[in-house]
Every structure is written in C-alpha cells, then in structure tokens.
Amino acid sequence: MNQTVIRHWKKVTRTMDRSPEDAACRKCYDDWARSCRHHGLDEEKLSESRDDLSEKIWFVRKRAYRPTGVALGCPLPEPDIQKLFCRIATDIARRVQQLYPGDEPAMSYVPREWYHTTLVNYSHYGEDEPEAADNANGQARETSAQRPWRMPKVLLPKVIDIIRGCGFGEVTVRLRGLFLTRQGTVLVRGYPTDDRVYELRQRLLDAEEDFGHHITKTVHFKLGHLIAPIGSAESEAALAIVDRHGAEIDARLTFRKAYTPVGGVDL
C-alpha cells in the first residue's frame, strides 16, 4: 500500500513540475490524437491533401512544408534520424496502401532535408494562403499588394538579436512516438527537455507581431500527409499502423542553429 502511495505521489509531482507551455503542448497532442480516434479520418481533408497540397511526384507542395518564419531543422542535425523518419514514412505509406485498392501512393512526403519543428510562423498555408495559384516551382505567387508569404530579409537582424539575446547556444528536443490527425498528417511527437524552446518562441512572438500568424503550441515534426481515399471504416487500421511505427521513435535532437527563409541563425 505504501508503495502505491509513493508511486502516485511521484507521478503527480512530475506533472505539477511541468511548465504551462509544456502542458499545453502535451494536451494538443492528446486532443488531436483523441479526435482522430473518436471521429476517424476526415475524408474531405484527405481529398484536399491529395488534390491541392500534393505534387504529381507525391511530395507535399512546398508551401505546405517549407517554414515561413523561424524553425529548428531544415535539415535535422542528425542524418540518422532523418533517415529513420524517411524510412518510417515510407513503411507507413506501404502498409496504408494495402487498406484500399489502387496503384496510387497512399502518402505525400515531406522531403527529408526539410524536416523541422516550427518556432513561429510568418504565414500558414492553411489560413493565410494567397488566392493565386502555385507557380512552376510550387510556390504561392504574390503580387506587390499582398503581404509577403515568407519572412522578409528586413526582419533577419531583429531575429538574430532576439535569438542571440537568449544566449542559449543549443536546445534539445526529445522525440517519442507518432500520431495521426483527422486531416491525415503524420506527426512526430517532440518534447523539449527544458523550457528554452518555449521561451525562445515567446520572445519572438513578443518582439514581432507578424509572427502571430497561426501560433503553434507544439514541437512536432511532420513526415507527410495521407492522401489515400481512406474511409471511416479503415481509420482504425490506419491509426494502428501509425502507432506501431511510432514505437520505433525514441531519440533526442540537439539544435545549435535556427532556420529562417532568409538565412540561418546560431543559437
């Protein structure tokens, strides 16, 4: 009986020690995963990924995977983890493809050299996307009257000052498991080992209002979008496949540089 009490006390203590930002990150993961398990995959969103966000070569369009603000990655600092992510994405696609008839790929991939976690967005393909169609390079065309799609170079000195002012040198994120959203995105769960990632994000948000577009609370890494015509009946099987492969992911990544569309910044 005493052992039970001690274990319970330790578990509660660890939960209480988490920062509000870390608790919010974990809650987002749990809410997204629970929604997919309860309601199944959203067939309309899968169709959108297939028709609007995927290239004919079965990669996600650039506007749906390239950071528009400040990120960690592009590429990841550990090539072996990039290879692991790529292999797992390919295996998931192969197994999901067995759930439905047809020869078309089941998933559109994020290129391995673009794996990242977002600190702040300058814009977001799901909310701020320009009405103009993609150009030949898969990038959203912009007119002079439109707000820039990606962070402009004029903001780089400000970003450098903010990041260097933190004086962190490096930040570490633990990677553990996968989950699937109702939209069909396959995401790696990332958990910062301390609050430096959250502090860096908040300082960027406080200093520049243009980073307040689609504020993210999580530290996830996207592997790709499912594009197979999976109905609600097959959702449970797809979730099981993602969960099974998620068990292969348990690692740490240490970042010493941040990515922006106009140049890298040492932490």
Residue-averaged pLDDT? 83
The gyration radius over C-alpha positions equals: 19 Å
Tally of individual domains: 1
- CATH structural fold name: Cyclic Phosphodiesterase, Chain: A
CATH superfamily: Cyclic phosphodiesterase
> Could you estimate the helical fraction of the residues in percent?
25-40%
Q: Helical segment tally?
A: 7
| SSE pattern, N- to C-terminal | HHHEHEEHEEHEHEEE
State the name of the first-level CATH class: Alpha Beta
Strand content: 15-25%
- Could you say which structural class the secondary elements and strand pairing correspond to? alpha+beta
- The CATH architecture name reads Alpha-Beta Complex
Poorly predicted runs of 5 or more residues: 1-16, 128-145
Counting DSSP E segments of at least 2 residues, the number of strands comes to 9
How are the strands ordered across the major sheet? 2-6-5-4-7
CA distance, first residue to last residue? 48 Å
Shape: globular
| Biggest beta sheet attributes | 5 strands, antiparallel
Tell me briefly what this model is:
The protein has 267 residues and is α+β, with helices and mostly antiparallel strands.
Q: Can you describe what's shown?
A:
It is built from seven helices and nine strands; from the N terminus they run αααβαββαββαβαβββ. With 267 residues, it is α+β, with helices and mostly antiparallel strands. The protein has one domain (20-126, 147-266): Cyclic phosphodiesterase (Cyclic Phosphodiesterase, Chain: A, Alpha-Beta Complex), CATH 3.90.1140.10. A hairpin with a 6-residue loop joins β8 and β9 (265-266). It is globular and about 55 Å long. The termini are far apart.
